[in-house]
Write a structure and sequence with these properties.
6-stranded antiparallel sheet; Alpha-Beta Plaits; about 650 residues; Rossmann fold; alpha+beta; 4-stranded mixed sheet; about 65% helix
């Protein structure tokens, strides 16, 4: 049995700031002394070290009043109260692997407390749990204050029952049971909240999944559109480059032709300049010829005028000669008449002779004049012939010059037409060059547009990548939230499922194992058929479900009937063994549960547990009323329908309503 070996006190109430050690031996110990010597302070120090936080239980108005304060402000060191209790744990009643257990509590002047277990920092609840498991806690009448015995004698039956339950440790388990039920209710509430959140998160996940699918489809379509646009742009760029190359080649040919035509134009211009020079010289000669011709024409007109005058005078003379010739017959007649009348007229003849002589003189004179006129006429004819020869020469020169002028004009027209043709070709080549330059500028603009489109696509792609990374981060965040919720749900499920196991198995493991070990030494005499886990078996996949459902019943003792159960209980009481669980086979009623027809239901858990036929009531008792499901959600839904349910992963749910 656990008992106190030693108490160490420092700075607590009447004990000063020096370490005071009090040793205790097993058995009854009495501490005597005068009033006010600090006898009760030793007990106060013990319950202070064991975690008592009610100042009235230690006869103080507040916890900081427990610190020794006789020295007041003269105290130079730290003001604190410390109490250490050493327990003998050789029988391992306190579930620690140590023969001695030291519990220390320190409190400073600010009221802050620090607990130590075997000189290692720990929490107050941990110390209280260890002491409760050893029936050495503060609530089990281990500490009897002044006046407590008198107060016990005045207890009613209910208060005595409560005290007895405190003594045997039942009230502790009732409190733990109530606390566990509250925690289970809180866990159920948290579970329902978590399930509701899970539903909302699932809806959000479905919406996000749909959005993600739409986004992926949109991204795929945009990628396809971008790829097709890129292919189209590449094809256009290729055709534009081909057109550019061909037009550049055409431009090169046109430029070479333009250069060639420019050279030819230069040659033509040079020839044109030479022709212009020749033309100016020829026109100068033509002007000189025209001047000479004008002078010759003036001389010729004067000569022709003289010729016309002479010719008119000759015509007049000829008419006079003709008149004279026409008068000769008349004259001859007259002469004959005169001869007839010779006689009469010899005088007249003589006169006539004189007149004839005068006439001959006149005739001679006229002939002389005719000769002079003939000479003049010959001279004029010679001059006219000379003028005609000059005219012919001039006409020949004029004809020659006219032919030369005509040839020059033809050559000039030819060169002018060639010049116009060259100018037309130059204009065409210029137009082609301009068109080529325009095409080149268009190609440059198209190139710039294509580059801008490519840059825009790159910007769009980078923006889409940013949006995808944003959606990915959101998705990761949601997944993390889901994982956190799942972890919270799993923790709550584990807390709800294994809470009782943690309390009963962890805290009472040594008691139960010790009791079972003691009883199994006399198993045949006591009629013990074995433990539950020795009588049944299961497949690995159902292990979590079986362990979550059976909890601490898995270590229960199996007996044949109720009489054997009573004998074992009396034996355990006689041996002062801690409590244990016993299952009598003949006390288990026959029943059969039909599984609900719901999604995710596998069947009844007992159908998946194997055992010998004589132990069939055991698996019916433990697992026959539990529905096995595929998931926690389906188990939760089944529990709402009034069934106990457990998932294959070990999430256990009590029935929420009556069947």
């Amino acid at each position: 049995m656990v008992h106190i070996k030693k108490v160490e006190i420092f700075g607590f109430k009447s004990f000063g700031f020096k370490n005071t050690t009090i040793d205790f031996e097993p058995g009854l110990i009495s501490i005597s002394g005068p009033n006010g010597s600090g006898k009760s302070n030793i007990l106060d120090a013990i319950i202070f070290a064991l975690g008592e936080n009610r100042p009235k239980m230690m006869r103080a108005d507040k916890l900081r009043s427990l610190i020794h304060d006789v020295e007041g402000a003269a105290r130079r060191g730290p003001k604190m109260a410390r109490a250490s209790v050493h327990f003998d744990n050789s029988d391992r009643v306190i579930p620690l692997e140590s023969d001695s257990v030291e519990i220390t509590r320190e409190m400073d002047d600010k009221g802050e407390n620090i607990y130590y277990l075997n000189k290692k920092k720990t929490q107050r609840n941990h110390i209280l749990d260890l002491l409760d498991m050893a029936n050495a806690g503060l609530h089990q009448l281990n500490n009897v204050q002044q006046g407590t015995v008198t107060r016990i004698s005045e207890f009613s039956g209910e208060e005595k029952r409560q005290v007895i339950e405190d003594l045997v440790g039942l009230s502790y388990f009732d409190e733990k049971k109530l606390e566990s039920e509250k925690q289970l209710q809180a866990a159920d509430q948290r579970l329902e909240i978590a399930m509701a959140k899970m539903g909302e998160v699932k809806k959000q996940i479905d919406n996000l999944e749909e959005e993600r699918n739409l986004k992926l489809r949109h991204d795929f379509i945009e990628k396809e559109v971008a790829r097709l646009n890129a292919i189209e742009a590449a094809n256009k760029m290729k055709s534009i480059k081909a057109n550019k190359i061909s037009k550049e080649q055409t431009l090169g040919g046109l430029e070479s032709e333009s250069t060639k035509f420019g050279e030819e134009l230069t040659v033509v211009k040079n020839e044109t300049d030479e022709l212009e020079t020749k033309k100016s010289a020829f026109m100068k000669e033509v002007n000189e010829f025209n001047q000479a011709k004008a002078s010759i024409d003036s001389e010729l007109s004067a000569a022709m005028r003289k010729f016309d005058e002479v010719d008119s005078s000759i015509a007049t003379k000829k008419k006079r000669f003709e008149y004279i010739d026409s008068r000769f017959p008349e004259i001859k007649d007259e002469i004959e008449q005169v001869q007839q009348s010779r006689g009469s007229i010899e005088s007249e003849i003589s006169k006539q002779k004189e007149s004839i002589e005068a006439t001959n003189v006149k005739k001679k004179k006229i002939n002389d004049e005719f000769q002079v006129m003939d000479l003049q006429l010959e001279k004029v004819a010679a001059e006219q012939a000379h003028a005609a020869s000059q005219k012919r020469e001039v006409d020949q020169k004029i004809k020659k010059l006219t032919d030369t002028l005509h040839d020059a004009q033809l050559t000039l027209k030819k060169y002018v037409s060639e010049q116009k043709d060259l100018e037309r070709k130059v204009t065409m080549n210029t137009d082609k060059n301009n068109n080529t330059q325009n095409d080149q500028e268009t190609l440059e603009l198209n190139k710039q547009k294509l580059e801008s489109v490519i840059s825009h696509h790159k910007v769009t792609i980078s923006e889409l990548k940013l949006r995808i990374s944003g959606y990915t981060s959101k998705r990761l965040k949601f997944e993390k939230d889901i994982e956190d919720l799942a972890e919270i749900l799993e923790k709550s499920n584990k807390a709800a499922t294994h809470f009782e196991t943690k309390i009963k198995v962890v805290k009472g493991a040594m008691h139960e194992d010790y009791t079972v070990a003691k009883l199994k030494e006399d198993a045949e005499q006591l009629g013990i058929m074995g433990l539950v886990y020795e009588t049944i078996s299961w497949d690995k996949q159902y292990e979590r479900a079986v362990m979550a459902t059976s909890s601490d019943w898995i270590k229960a003792i199996v007996v044949k009937d109720f009489t054997t159960l009573i004998n074992i209980a009396e034996f355990a009481k006689h041996k002062k063994l801690p409590k244990l669980k016993i299952i009598p086979l003949d006390a288990i009623p026959e029943f059969k549960l039909d599984p609900p027809k719901m999604n995710g239901v596998i069947g009844i858990l007992s159908d998946h547990v194997k055992c010998d036929s004589k132990f069939t009531p055991i698996k019916k008792f433990l697992f026959g009323n539990v529905v096995l499901t595929e998931s926690k959600e389906s188990a939760h839904q089944v529990s709402k329908s009034g069934y106990k349910a457990v998932s294959i992963g070990g999430a256990f749910f009590e029935a929420k309503s009556a069947l």
